[in-house]
Amino acid sequence: MTGKTNPGNYFEDFAPGQEIVHATPRTVSEGDVSLYTALYGSRFAVQSSDILAMSLGYEAAPVDDFLAFHIVFGKTVSDISLNAVANLGYASGRFGGAVYPGDTLRAVSSVIGVKENSNGKTGVVYVHTTGLNQRDEPVLDFVRWVMVNKRDPSAAAPEPVIPTLDAFVGERELVVPGGLDLSNYDCTLSGSSLLWDDYQVGEKIDHVDAMTIEESEHMMAARLFQNSARVHFNQHAEKQGRFARRIVYGGHIISLARALSFNGLANAFHVAAINAGTHVAPTFAGDTVYAWSEVLGKTKIPGRGDIGALRVRTVAVKDNSCAAFPDKDTDGKYAPSVVLDFDYAVLMPRKP
Amino acid sequence: MTGKTNPGNYFEDFAPGQEIVHATPRTVSEGDVSLYTALYGSRFAVQSSDILAMSLGYEAAPVDDFLAFHIVFGKTVSDISLNAVANLGYASGRFGGAVYPGDTLRAVSSVIGVKENSNGKTGVVYVHTTGLNQRDEPVLDFVRWVMVNKRDPSAAAPEPVIPTLDAFVGERELVVPGGLDLSNYDCTLSGSSLLWDDYQVGEKIDHVDAMTIEESEHMMAARLFQNSARVHFNQHAEKQGRFARRIVYGGHIISLARALSFNGLANAFHVAAINAGTHVAPTFAGDTVYAWSEVLGKTKIPGRGDIGALRVRTVAVKDNSCAAFPDKDTDGKYAPSVVLDFDYAVLMPRKP
Amino acid sequence: MTGKTNPGNYFEDFAPGQEIVHATPRTVSEGDVSLYTALYGSRFAVQSSDILAMSLGYEAAPVDDFLAFHIVFGKTVSDISLNAVANLGYASGRFGGAVYPGDTLRAVSSVIGVKENSNGKTGVVYVHTTGLNQRDEPVLDFVRWVMVNKRDPSAAAPEPVIPTLDAFVGERELVVPGGLDLSNYDCTLSGSSLLWDDYQVGEKIDHVDAMTIEESEHMMAARLFQNSARVHFNQHAEKQGRFARRIVYGGHIISLARALSFNGLANAFHVAAINAGTHVAPTFAGDTVYAWSEVLGKTKIPGRGDIGALRVRTVAVKDNSCAAFPDKDTDGKYAPSVVLDFDYAVLMPRKP
Questions:
Q1: Which CATH class is domain B14-152+172-349?
Q2: What kind of architecture, by CATH, is found in domain A11-349?
Q3: A271 neighbors A87 (Cβ within 8 angstroms)
Q4: What is the ipTM of this complex?
Q5: Tens-place pLDDT, residues A99-141
Q6: B102 contacts in A (CB within 8 Å)?
Q7: Closest CA–CA distance from residue C15 to any residue of chain A (Å)
Q8: Any bridge partners for residue C107, and if so which?
Q9: Distances in Å between the alpha carbon of C159 and those of B44, C146, C154, C320?
Q10: What is the CATH number of domain C15-150+167-349?
């Protein structure tokens, strides 16, 4: 090797206040939308039909919120998590205006915290990432924290900085995409008559359907998102690794869970926030992903009579029906089948 | 479960005269076209080149007729066949004007027949489905009948209503997409000099080529079509099922057979009708699909000297060459390798 | 069979001077670009972002050079290599102006050489293929030679004609896409600060990353390119064949190697020439492809101070790290892990 390749950043390379402009801006296209549909089978009507979306005030069918998220996330991998041991969590994710095919996304991050682990070999890095479109408008931003290897275990530990993160995104920070007017919302075409008013806090929904993951699918997804994390792609190396297999990109499970949630949350037409998220266990090709959701909260949107927000926790589970809602126990220990615990906010039409 | 999910309709839920508006309208895009090409490898020139299509009077390259069919079909699954035991047949399928990227398709169905089976556990439902574009023009319609479970085996049987279905779509019902003029048809670019005049009734063609199906391919196809039938996706459940495997969406075989038929029917540039179709046996990942065709009829198109129609029967076969034309015997029993028997009409240029 | 299918050409069917117009012109779309990204994970910024491409003088993000190459190549298979035993080599490949989504490509070839092999069963055919866009402008041309079966081993051998081929494409033949001005080139967004000036002749780069190939991926790729070679698709037949498996389209490896080369050659924003190429060994699903490159030459582009060309040799390797640069030995015998030896020219920005 001649120093021409990117070795990725190590724990020592991160310092609070550091700004990182990520490479490879990406024009999102109708082709990306079709692949997203083919990979996840999403059936939310707003993202499927230009005509329906325009009847609600969108310029066209917006791309799936998690397609935008994964594209922005993918750009950060080479700089943030190429030497990461684990993706520990998400918080404070907010989706701004709609992203349409033709928009060009880029990503910038700032380091907002570092803390060396007591073993001296790794540390936790907290990063705030923003996705911007071609007009430099933020389309989404989020915080994530990852455990990253140190280059040199003998290097001195930095002063720990741990950011204060809200438990969830407040109702005043939830953005309704500009120009929306849901008075024409069509519950026949959306696939369900259940609106915001019909959901109760504490209610649990088994989404019933499930998807078995294939190697080519999760790799095509990660490549579509230009995610360069090696563990997803190289079976020759991974067969010597911790799991002897390629690891599925965690975001693949988020998108599968969101698509499965259509059956029960069909009118949750937009994801407005990511409150928290944990990849509880890795997933692999051959795993079958089920999902269930719990309504954690309901909020009105200030100034809007037509739209409400639900705070939802969707739990993805592998190789196990969700009829019994597999969850964590009172000690916080997850059932062995749980792979994702995702707390987010969705927008939903209210009854007139 | 809290009643928030769609349990699908059971036999008792269907009654003749009932109208169903299906959910999730879909804007067809260039991305769908590319995925269709990647999944089936179709080489028909009209659907491949805007320039060539426009030279014949199309506005642009139309999307493959079966891409439109599968998208419309997919919308009906949640309402019609979520609790279906078997997809029994197709009839009276007619393709209208061309579908282009940018068109938005939706589907409506009417129930035209019901008949309880003698076992009292299932019944047959006959449905007429129409796909409409954003101008409310029908782009295709077809009848299918499915065997559906009863919710309650003790429920009384309805008065049987069995629709009268034509054996095939008559020549006067075959629609030539508007504005077509084949005087510039280029047999070099289309890949074959064989025109309508060169085919004889009774002639059989072994399409020679074959495609092995992978799990990710048939699942990506079904998801692209937003087909929600569970048997295609959930290996964890299906391993306990009748075949211990996920079942390939029947339409996947139709599209594979149509793409394979290019080698022998390269100038069959448009599918104008589906006369009849039977999924003789299920297919699974790992199966290799071959196809052969028989010319069942030839008709001129009233008022057109440049275009003729062939009535073709294409038989798809698995894990067996079609050199010997595997078929049904004189008792109507199919050879074990046959998976699809599909009777349809194609348009083809005539010799000047 | 009734003579309706294409049996492909045999060695006797080729004669020097023969011109072949290939079938199935193809409009390249944004869907093709997305699939290309999903199949290879390419991260070159110019092909990823319309905004960035336009800042350099492109009309939009051009499609990947090898996407255009594979589409043109795919058209030639039915006429040139359906009965080929082996794809022996490439030479004199030149890429012209940029190809954009919306362009329609077609392919024409001329036979420039034939030589029967001494066994009397096969012969080598040399073909010069040109890809043209809708304005009849050449977008790429190349020579390839293939070993083709004779239809009749007793047929007389033709007079051998072996074309003279240059070892590499000269600097004066390298085309800079029209209107380019790299003064706004952004090394942050491109992912590397290393420019033409930073590379030395003789330098070797291990691209570090690797991709494991799945059956569905290489088949989807070959179908996207409308490549009809049977060995890629039919496991039922191939299990009786030489390798008992489907063979991956050789071009799939070229594209994987090019995408992997981003890590080390991120600013090689355009492939301008193919000097030579050999598929050293076949690849199969399950193989993991690594790549390394060697800088064979550096040339300035006449009249351009902003752009230089590197002549690069990229070697793709399977199931073996490239840390030790697996190569051929002094007798020209390749290490068993080498699958591709590809000599080409890339354009790269020069330091201001």
A1: alpha beta
A2: Roll (3.10)
A3: no
A4: 0.97
A5: 999 999 999 999 999 999 999 999 999 999 999 999 999 999 9
A6: 50
A7: 42
A8: C131
A9: 37, 17, 15, 44
A10: 3.10.129.10
